[in-house]
Design a protein that fits this description.
It comes from Youngiibacter multivorans. It holds the Pfam family Sigma54_activat. This is Transcriptional regulator with PAS, ATPase and Fis domain. The structure is a single chain. With about 475 residues, the protein is of the alpha/beta class. The chain folds into 3 domains: about 120 residues, Beta-Lactamase, CATH 3.30.450.20; about 170 residues, P-loop containing nucleotide triphosphate hydrolases (Rossmann fold, 3-Layer(aba) Sandwich), CATH 3.40.50.300; about 140 residues, Helicase, Ruva Protein, domain 3, CATH 1.10.8.60. Helix content is about 45%, strand content about 15%. Strands 2-1-5-4-3 form a 5-stranded antiparallel β-sheet. Strands 7-10-13-6-14 form a 5-stranded parallel β-sheet. The chain has a two-stranded antiparallel sheet with strand order 8-9. Strand 3 and strand 4 form a beta hairpin. Helix 15 crosses helix 17. The chain is elongated, with a radius of gyration of 32 Å. Bound molecules: adenosine-5'-triphosphate and magnesium ion (MG). Magnesium ion binds next to helix 9.
C-alpha cells in the first residue's frame, strides 16, 4: 500500500481532518452559504460573511432573509433545479450567485449558494452586455419586420433573352393590376427578384412587402403566422395576441414562397381568404377585410401535384391567374456574360477589388456548364473566383474548382490506385461523401436544394450529412 491510498483509507482519516479539508475546500471555492429546507442558515464561510460584513457564527440558525436580504430561494426549492448566474445587489455591490438544491431521496433538503468572487466583475459585465444584445436583437428583428420593403427593382433583372424581355414587359403590365400572380421556375432563376420588381412597380410600393416561406415554417405555426391570434387564445402564446402576416401586409403585397409545400389543411384555409378577401384571427370573432396583392412562387410542377392529389385543384386555379414562368439559365446562356458583368461590379464594390472582366477561356468554361443551380449558382462561382483573384481579369485558374466538378473527377483525378478502398461499401461511401459535399457547396450550404439536386429525400440527406460530418 502506498502512502496515498493509506491517506484515503477512511479509518485513517479522522473526523477532524475531514472537517478541516471540507472547510478549506469550501473557503477556496468562493463565497459559500448553505441553508436548510426551512430557509435557515446552516453554514456560511468566512469569505462570504466578511463580504457581507456580518458575524459568521451569529448568523447561523437565522432565516436567510434576515442575513442576506433580497435573495430568492423559493424557485430552487420549488423546481428542484439549480439557478445559475443570477445577479443581485447588496449595498451597491453586485454578486453573481449560483444556487444548487440539496436533495435526499427526491426530497428537498436545502440549498447551497456559491458566488465565485474573482470572476464577478467579468461575469457581470458579460451578463449585462448579453442582456443588452438580446434587447438589441429583438429591436432589430422587430424593425426589419416593419421595414419589409422590396429590395430589388425591375432593372436588377439582367437579361437579353427574348422570353425574359417579354416577361419584364409583362411585369410592367401586371403592376397596375391587383391580380394574383404565380411565379414558377427552377431554384435560383430569379423568382424572388421578379416578385420584388412587381411590388416596386405597383402603386403599393410604399406599403409593406411581406414574404413567407411555406417550406420553412413549422406546420403547427403556419396558421398563427398567417392569421394571428387574439389575446389569451392559447397557453404559451404572447399575452397581447399577435398580428398575422395577412394583416401586416394589408394594403401591400405578400409573397408566399414554395406554395407547393403548404399542407392540404392550410390550402383550404388559404383558398377561403383568396375568395372572401377577409380573415379571422385565431380565437377572434370579427372578420377583418384584407387588401393584399398575392404572389406565389414554386419550383415544382403544380399541375402534376394537382393530378396526384397533393395540391387542391380549386386553389391551383385561384393562384394561377397570371403566370410568370422563368426559363432556367441553361436555356438562355446568352445572358451569362451580362450577368457575370453585373456580379463583377457588385463584388468589386463589396470587396473593394478591381476585377476588370473575365477571360474568353474562363467564359467558355462557364458557357459550357449546365447550371443546375441557375443564377444563384453562377453568383456563388463569381464570388468564389473573387476570393482567389487579386484583381485584373478573372481567368481559368479562378474557376478551376468548376473543371473538377463533373462526377468523373473522383475517378480520373486520382493518381495510382483509383480506389484505395477494397470494400465496395467504402468506395460507395467515398463517392457519396464527395457528391454530397460538392452539392452542399454548389448550393451554398442550402440542404434542401442540395438534397433535391441529388434526388434524395431530405431526411435521408440529413442522415448522410450527419454520418459524413458535412455541414
Ligand atoms: N436576371 C438576373 N439578373 C441578376 N441577378 C439575378 C437574376 N436572376 C437572379 N439573380 C440573382 O440570383 C440570386 C437568386 O435569385 P432569387 O433568389 O430571386 O431566385 P429564386 O428563384 O427565388 O430561387 P429559390 O427557388 O431558390 O428561392 C439572387 O441573388 C438574385 O439577385
Ligand atoms: Mg426564392
Amino acid at each position: 500500500m502506498d502512502r496515498y491510498s493509506s491517506w484515503l483509507d477512511p479509518d485513517n482519516l479522522s473526523q477532524e481532518m475531514m472537517e478541516y479539508y471540507a472547510n478549506e475546500a469550501l473557503e477556496s471555492v468562493g463565497s459559500v452559504a448553505i441553508i436548510d429546507k426551512d430557509f435557515r442558515m446552516v453554514y456560511i464561510n468566512d469569505k462570504y460573511a466578511d463580504s457581507l460584513g456580518i458575524d459568521r457564527l451569529k448568523s447561523l440558525g437565522r432565516p436567510v432573509s434576515e442575513v442576506i436580504d433580497n435573495t430568492n430561494m423559493t424557485n430552487v426549492a420549488k423546481t428542484g433545479h439549480p439557478e445559475l448566474g443570477v445577479i443581485y445587489s447588496r449595498n451597491g455591490v453586485n454578486f453573481v450567485i449560483n444556487k444548487f438544491p440539496i436533495m435526499k431521496n427526491g426530497e428537498f433538503m436545502g440549498i447551497v449558494g456559491i458566488s465565485t468572487f474573482q470572476d464577478n466583475d467579468k461575469l457581470i459585465s458579460l451578463k449585462l452586455r448579453l442582456d443588452n444584445l438580446v434587447k438589441e436583437l429583438n429591436y432589430y428583428k422587430d424593425k426589419s419586420k416593419k421595414q419589409n420593403a422590396a429590395k430589388y427593382s425591375i432593372d436588377d433583372i439582367i437579361s437579353q433573352n427574348d422570353t425574359m424581355l417579354k416577361l419584364k414587359l409583362l411585369v410592367h403590365k401586371m403592376a397596375s393590376t391587383k391580380s394574383t400572380v404565380l411565379i414558377s421556375g427552377e431554384s435560383g432563376t430569379g423568382k424572388e427578384l421578379f416578385a420584388h420588381a412587381l411590388h416596386s412597380l405597383s402603386r403599393r410600393s410604399g406599403m409593406p412587402f411581406q414574404r413567407i416561406n411555406c417550406s420553412t415554417i413549422p406546420e403547427n405555426l403556419i396558421e398563427s403566422e398567417l392569421f394571428g391570434y387574439e389575446k389569451g387564445t392559447f397557453t404559451g402564446a404572447s399575452k397581447d395576441g399577435k398580428l398575422g402576416e395577412f394583416e401586416v401586409a394589408n394594403g401591400g403585397t405578400m409573397m408566399m414562397d414554395e406554395i407547393d409545400s403548404l399542407p392540404l389543411s392550410m390550402q383550404a384555409k388559404l383558398l377561403r381568404v383568396l375568395q372572401e378577401k377577409e380573415i379571422r384571427r385565431i380565437g377572434g370573432k370579427e372578420t377583418i377585410d384584407i387588401d393584399v396583392r398575392m404572389i406565389f412562387t414554386t419550383n415544382k410542377d403544380l399541375l402534376s401535384m394537382v393530378r396526384s392529389g397533393q395540391f387542391r385543384e380549386d386553389l391551383y386555379y385561384r393562384i394561377n391567374v397570371m403566370n410568370i414562368s422563368i426559363p432556367p439559365l441553361r436555356e438562355r446562356k446568352e445572358d451569362i456574360p451580362y450577368i457575370i458583368e453585373r456580379f463583377i461590379q457588385k463584388y468589386n464594390r463589396e470587396m473593394g477589388m478591381r476585377v476588370t472582366g473575365i477571360s474568353p477561356e474562363a467564359l467558355d468554361l462557364l458557357m459550357g456548364y449546365e447550371w443546375p443551380g441557375n443564377i444563384r449558382e453562377l453568383e456563388n462561382y463569381v464570388e468564389r473566383a473573387f476570393i482567389y483573384s487579386t484583381g485584373g481579369m478573372l481567368g481559368l485558374e479562378h474557376f478551376d474548382f468548376l473543371e473538377k466538378l463533373p462526377a468523373a473527377d473522383s475517378i480520373e483525378g486520382h493518381e495510382k490506385p483509383i480506389f484505395e478502398e477494397t470494400k465496395l461499401r467504402d468506395m460507395v461511401a467515398r463517392v457519396e461523401r464527395e457528391a454530397i459535399s460538392e452539392a452542399m457547396s454548389r448550393f451554398d450550404g442550402n440542404k434542401k436544394r442540395a438534397a433535391e439536386s441529388l434526388g434524395v429525400d431530405r431526411s435521408v440527406f440529413y442522415e448522410k450529412l450527419r454520418r459524413y460530418g458535412i455541414g
